[in-house]
Design a protein that fits this description.
The complex is a heterodimer of chains A (about 120) and B (about 280). Chain A is built from five helices and five strands. In chain A, α2 packs parallel to α3. The N and C termini of chain A lie close together (about 10 Å). Chain B has about 280 residues and is an alpha/beta fold. Helices cover about 40% and strands about 20% of the residues of chain B. Bound molecules: S-adenosylmethionine.
Chain lengths: ~120, ~280
């Protein structure tokens, strides 16, 4: 079973995303900021990460760069999922190594399309 | 809405577009037609039907038919046909049309434009491979409303997130309020035409590739047969036909043969081993 880490400071969003991803057969782990997410990745790298941008402690963008600097071999597919819905943010995220980008609000269809796009489904 | 009203509306839709309503679409029809009823000072669907029966008003009939058609679409829908287009059709066409460097593609029932624009993006992405070619993408639909949207190239945030890879959004779209507009360059690659599949295809000319997807499923068998056989006369001898995921020619016509191992892709049955020809010039 593929593991997906959901990183979002809103527990409501984590819950919705968890339900969607479990339906697609993922086993889900949650983190509420970038720092926690790094800890999870340090222990065992997931196959996929659904990543919010604005979060306390460490935001999604800084997390992505820290992830890039980690020595581990297999890097997960990173799909941003954020309200930063403008071209400048999208370009920055993709440039920093994100694989896909979801603009909130999202639903099951969008998550499915984006995860298919990067070969996770 | 009474069963009589529903029967009347189904018949009107079928006569005008070939579309066949399943028995359980009352709810859909009601939600689509209530706004049309209000626009026309009718308090209910019943009143609207009364008006339709009483007056041979062409604009109203057209408006009602359009409102009842299903026009959902998305970018790179079902993905596989676009993969086949990329890995089978394009390399073949590149070879056999290498001399004329002309290619005509038809998206029949193109709805709001995602299908033709997906193709246009593929040609842009192919870059040098088709440099100097004259590629025409003709996109048609019965509904003027969807054609207007297609021409505007304006899509909601939801629409650009279903099937469109983010890199293509970055490359070919600009933000316009809270919507996204596809670039002028891509809009210029597609010619939109209002066209009913029940009418003659002659004014459209001949095509090397025809996409006819997710519209045949709504037709009755006779209409399916008729449309497919006329498509076969509109497709050049060595052309390709692509149907939707839930559609097939099997049982409706033997004019086309499915390409082995290439789901959704068809060639003329008579030309199982396609020979190069220059019929693209005929248009
Ligand atoms: C579900 S959409 C398919 C759009 C696109 N081909 C796709 O696969 O995503 C069906 C379209 O067929 C159009 N249509 C229905 N009857 C038609 C007819 N008789 N002639 C031309 N277009 C028709 C509708 O207006 C609608 O836009």
């Amino acid at each position: 079973m593929k593991r997906c880490l959901i990183v979002d400071d809103s527990s409501v969003i984590r819950k919705v995303a968890r339900r969607i991803l479990e339906n697609f057969g993922f086993s889900v782990i949650e983190a509420s900021d970038g720092r926690q997410a790094l800890d999870v990745c340090g222990k065992e790298m997931p196959e996929a990460i659904l990543l919010d941008w604005n979060m306390p402690v460490m935001d999604g963008f800084d997390f992505l760069r820290a992830l890039g600097a980690m020595p581990s071999g297999d890097k997960p597919k990173v799909v941003f999922c954020t309200t930063e819905n403008d071209l400048a943010h999208i370009a920055r995220a993709m440039h920093a190594g994100a694989d896909e980008y979801i603009m909130k609000p999202f639903d099951k269809e969008i998550v499915e399309a984006k995860f298919q796009e990067v070969g996770l489904i | 809405m009474t069963p009589q009203d529903y029967a009347y509306l189904s018949k009107l839709l079928n006569e005008r577009s070939g579309l066949q309503l399943a028995g359980d679409k009352q709810y859909l029809i009601e939600s689509r037609l209530l706004p049309v009823a209000r626009e026309n000072n009718c308090g209910s669907i019943g009143d609207l039907v009364t008006k339709l029966k009483a007056f041979a008003e062409e604009p109203l009939r057209r408006r009602v038919t359009e409102a009842m058609t299903i026009n959902e679409s998305f970018f790179f829908r079902d993905k596989t046909p676009f993969d086949r287009f990329q890995d089978t059709v394009l390399p073949y066409m590149q070879k056999i049309r290498g001399a004329s460097k002309r290619l005509r593609i038809w998206c029949a029932a193109s709805s709001t434009g995602q299908e033709p624009y997906s193709l246009a993006m593929m040609f842009k992405q192919a870059g040098a491979a088709f440099a100097g070619w004259k590629i025409s993408i003709v996109a048609s639909d019965i509904s003027t409303e969807v054609l207007e949207k297609a021409k505007s190239g304006l899509y909601t945030q939801f629409e650009v997130q279903r099937g469109l890879p983010i890199q293509l959004l970055l490359k070919y779209f600009k933000q316009d309020g809270d919507q996204w507009r596809i670039s002028q360059e891509l809009r210029d690659m597609v010619q939109y035409r209002q066209h009913n599949l029940l009418d003659s295809f002659a004014p459209l000319g001949m095509f090397d590739v025809i996409f006819c997807r997710n519209v045949l499923i709504y037709f009755d068998s006779k209409t399916k047969q008729d449309v497919l056989s006329r498509i076969s006369r509109t497709l050049v001898k060595d052309g390709h036909l692509l149907l939707g995921a839930a559609e097939t020619v099997v049982g409706f016509t033997n004019l086309f043969a499915p390409m082995p191992e290439k789901r959704g892709l068809y060639v003329h049955a008579a030309a199982k081993k396609p020979q190069p020809q220059l019929a693209a010039m005929s248009a």
